[in-house]
Write a structure and sequence with these properties.
The complex is a heterotetramer, with two copies of chain A (77 residues) and two copies of chain B (148 residues). By secondary structure, chain A is α+β, with helices and mostly antiparallel strands. Chain A is built from two helices and five strands. In chain A, strands 2-1-5-3-4 form a five-stranded mixed β-sheet. In chain A, a hairpin with a 2-residue loop joins strand 3 (49-52) and strand 4 (55-57). Chain B has a single domain, classed as Aldehyde Oxidoreductase, domain 3 (Alpha-Beta Complex), CATH 3.90.1170.40. Chain B is 30% helix and 37% strand. In chain B, strands 1, 2, 3, 4, 5, 6, 7 and 8 form an eight-stranded mixed β-sheet that branches. Chain B is globular and about 50 Å long. The chains are: A alpha+beta (77), B alpha+beta (148). Chains in contact: A-B, B-C, C-D. The B-C interface holds B 18-19, 21-23, 25-26, 28-46, 97-100, 107, 109, 111, 114-115, 118-119, 122 and C 18-19, 21-23, 25-26, 28-46, 97-100, 107, 109, 111, 114-115, 118-119, 122. Strand 2 of chain B pairs antiparallel with strand 2 of chain C, so a sheet runs across the interface.
Chain lengths: 77, 148, 148, 77
């Protein structure tokens, strides 16, 4: 399937990308991360969470949604 | 209180003015079951970091998720505490040092509920809402803020 | 912080206006070490008591003792918590239902101090300061308020 | 000695007096209360504290100051 990946905050800065599309065969978040780390090696050093349908997912969650969001630590308030 | 409330706008472009806060307080003077208000204000600090001074924070958010989180937090807080009303505003964009970026306002017949609710609300917002802050130094360099 | 501060006037004749509170907030925007403010407001409730509605509270105080208590409470709070500043205002005379009679404002670099300080301050003021309140009903009868 | 007695809030209302002077031979707060209860019997039903030099005193404290203040329960805030 074709995924839309969104990056926020420092992740958008270091990847120099706010949004990109990529094709992805079915798999888990860990599988997706392998693809993303290959494309943006600098991501591997950073702390972030992955959200699908506005909910955080773990490494073994299946990617089922076309929009995946990478979120760095929060800093509201 | 279990009725569902419709989502209220939280994000404000730029700093939250003292006048806006004063007007918000004034609007509550017709609500005569209220005995206690508690207001939390987050203000941007001119922190010194390795010899450089923060002059502003630029806020961005994953707005769809942030708005739905704010809504969930509102509902949970109304269920946990006996509140008459609740208002939450957060800045997006640039907020200078000394300016206000977060305004949380709770009201109740009694003080114990506002003390407990304000602390719960502010901590939960900082922990759960996807908002990002870029601390801009006077020399235009920056670093990314992380809530502690 | 152990330096002695000189007593600041606390009592205000009549209600405390939302505009006064807004102006007080605005004055803090030059203090760029502050990261968190907490404001408590006490508002007169139109309580229903045996079918009668409170329309106002008339406040009096043993002013000499009240002022020295307010001073002691200020000093104790500055010692207990890491605060940048603190303001306390209380009404004397008539305050109508819906109007504000108590305004407590604390500021600190960090939020944990303002949450703890505001609760300590408000509870201590209610417990220790000799202020008396006459609840006036709509039919001009009255009863004496007692803090719970 | 001559004492000045001050009454606040509901105590001023029920005694119909905000301030009065009375002569008092040396003694404790309990001794003074006997005098005051005789003068204002309604006081005996009410809850109040006695302050001397802006400090609360107990029944066995010696009256040493010329100004004694009777304070009903507080209602600030």
């Amino acid at each position: 399937m074709t995924l839309k990946i969104k990056y926020f905050g420092m992740l958008a800065e270091i990847t120099q990308c706010e949004e990109e599309t990529l094709s992805f065969s079915k798999g888990t978040a860990a599988d997706l991360l392998k693809v993303l780390f290959e494309k943006h090696p600098i991501l591997e050093e950073k702390e972030f969470q992955i959200a699908q349908n506005q909910t955080f997912i773990s490494n073994d969650s299946i990617i089922s949604n076309a929009e995946i969001v990478l979120l760095p630590p929060f800093a509201g308030g | 209180m279990t009725k569902e409330r419709k989502p209220k706008p939280v994000f404000i472009e730029g700093a939250i003015s003292a006048e806006f806060i004063g007007n918000s307080i004034a609007k509550h003077q017709s609500k005569t079951t209220i005995g206690a208000h508690d207001i939390f204000l987050g203000q941007v600090r001119a922190d010194q970091i390795e010899g450089k001074t923060v002059k502003a924070i630029e806020y961005t958010a994953y707005e769809d998720m942030a708005n739905s989180k704010f809504h969930d937090i509102r509902e949970a807080t109304f269920k946990k505490f006996n509140l008459t009303c609740m208002h939450i505003y957060h800045s997006l964009g640039t907020v200078k040092a000394g300016e206000i970026c977060l305004f949380v306002f709770v009201s109740s017949p009694r003080r114990v509920d506002v003390f407990n609710a304000i602390e719960y609300l502010v901590n939960t917002i900082k922990e759960q809402v996807p908002i990002f802050g870029k601390e801009i130094f006077e020399d235009q360099s920056h670093q990314w803020k992380v809530n502690s």
